[in-house]
Write a structure and sequence with these properties.
The protein is of the alpha/beta class and 418 residues long. The protein is built from 20 helices and twelve strands. α13 (235-243) links the parallel β5 and β6 (249-254). Bound molecules: S-adenosylmethionine. Belongs to the class I-like SAM-binding methyltransferase superfamily. RsmB/NOP family.
Length: 418
């Protein structure tokens, strides 16, 4: 069925705002939809898909849009919509626009210059090529430009993974077990989950398999004192609380009251009562100092460039710059140093990011070790063996979409000497 002709115009208008990169694309798009309440769900879905296609493929589309007719932003909108929905679904096009789209469809995209195929900003692609070589960098870039599957985590307090698979099948939703995370499920389609009893009762949460693994490697146990230092809306907090079987004490710190507030309804669904959300002013807040050397396990899911999550947030690649990475590095070093003070002798500290860059990952981890003689690195292969996770790693956890089908993640585990 063809889409309403207004979809192209709305995609063009939304892009005009989003491509100014004054804020996150999802926030600007939600605002756009609030300002245009007459757009139906199908049209909204189409506009969103068109916008995200443009964000993913901005460089190659800009080169295609050098030909064509009408405003440049309309050409980008047409390219995005035609790619994800098919040119036949678009209504209200001028004859020359349809002809142009047909000509574009005949381009062999595998023959484009690598930078256009990668669709990454030059500084970022150059960094990845320098580290991984051109072929591997391109594979990574292409995987980052695809849609992510929908992963769920089963809340072990409420259900078993096999039972959830059977329950979802009745919906009918096909789910398979994730290969590495012990409580994960992967869906190939993206059904609405909010109204399923499984979701409302807290038996499932949406969480990428890689994110589940970051919580897993902290190894939190029953009865322990645990801190999630950068808890945000609590994706990992919820996984940690369930690993602790709702015992012990789990602090969820964050500087953002707004993000922590989003944890509340998720906590209510989850059935967890061992979580204590605490808003802090900064990483050296007095509330942190009071807990010095008292915590068994501390997770630092640090603020980062988010470049590992481009499958979901493709605008991040255009919003980050080499300068923003340097600023993040200072923050990451400072947060990790402060969080380390919480750790008991013999306790563990995990530094994690959803970044792909060495500067935010290995460099922060090795800088920490160099300045903290009382901590040692626990090789990731040992941690994964302890947790019975079937992944081959060296010293660090490094997950990639083209290899592990997860978002890009990094983690290092440290132990405080006794
Ligand atoms: C990667 S996000 C956390 C995502 C979250 N752990 C999850 O799994 O959903 C990083 C978080 O760090 C928080 N943050 C930024 N600066 C901080 C600081 N100085 N101390 C603690 N948290 C901070 C941000 O507000 C953000 O929520």
């Amino acid at each position: 069925m063809r889409l309403h002709p207004a979809v192209v115009g709305h995609t063009e208008e939304a892009l005009r705002e989003i491509l100014r990169f004054t804020g996150p694309a999802d926030v600007i798009l939600s605002r756009y939809f609030r300002e245009h309440p007459k757009l139906g769900p199908r049209e909204r879905g189409a506009v969103a898909e068109g916008v995200y296609a443009v964000l993913r493929n901005k460089l190659s589309y800009a080169s295609f849009a050098e030909s064509g007719h009408g405003p440049a932003m309309r050409r980008l909108a047409l390219l995005g919509l035609a790619d994800v929905l098919g040119a036949d679904a678009l209504a209200g096009l001028a004859a020359e626009e349809s002809d142009w789209l047909q000509r574009i469809a005949q381009i062999d995209r595998t023959a484009l210059p690598v930078t256009l195929r990668a669709n990454l900003p030059q500084w970022l692609f150059d960094k990845l090529v320098a580290r991984d070589g051109e072929a591997a960098a391109l594979q990574l870039a292409e995987a980052l430009n695809r849609n992510a599957p929908l992963d769920l985590r089963v809340n072990v307090l409420k259900a078993k993974r096999e039972d959830v698979v059977a329950e979802l099948a009745k919906a009918p939703i096909v789910a398979e077990m994730t290969p590495y995370a012990p409580f994960g499920l992967r869906l190939h389609k993206k059904p609405a989950l909010q109204n399923l009893p499984l979701f409302k009762d807290g038996a499932i949460e949406v969480q990428d398999e890689g994110s589940q693994l970051l919580a897993q490697i902290l190894g939190a146990k029953r009865g322990e004192m645990v801190a999630d230092f950068c808890a945000g809306a609590g994706g990992k907090t919820l996984a940690l609380g369930a690993m602790m079987r709702n015992t012990g004490r789990l602090y969820a710190f964050d500087v953002s009251e707004k993000r922590l507030a989003k944890l509340k309804p998720r906590l209510a669904r989850s059935g967890l009562s061992n979580v204590h959300p605490v808003v802090i002013a900064h990483e050296n807040d007095a509330k942190i100092k009071r807990l010095a050397a008292k915590i068994d396990r501390v997770l630092v899911d640090a603020p980062c460039s988010g470049l590992g999550t481009l499958r979901r947030n493709p605008d991040m690649k255009w919003r980050q710059t080499p300068e923003s990475i340097v600023e993040l590095n200072a923050k990451q070093t400072s947060i990790l140093a402060s969080a380390a003070r919480l750790v008991k002798p013999g306790g563990r500290l995990v530094y994690a990011t959803c970044s792909l860059l060495d500067e935010e990952n290995e460099a922060i981890a090795s800088g920490f070790l160099a300045s903290h003689a009382d901590f040692t690195l626990v090789p990731m292969k040992d941690v994964l063996a302890e947790q019975k996770v079937a992944l081959e790693m060296g010293d660090y956890l490094k997950l990639y979409p083209h290899i592990h089908q997860t978002d890009g993640f990094f983690a290092a585990v440290f132990e405080r000497k006794k």
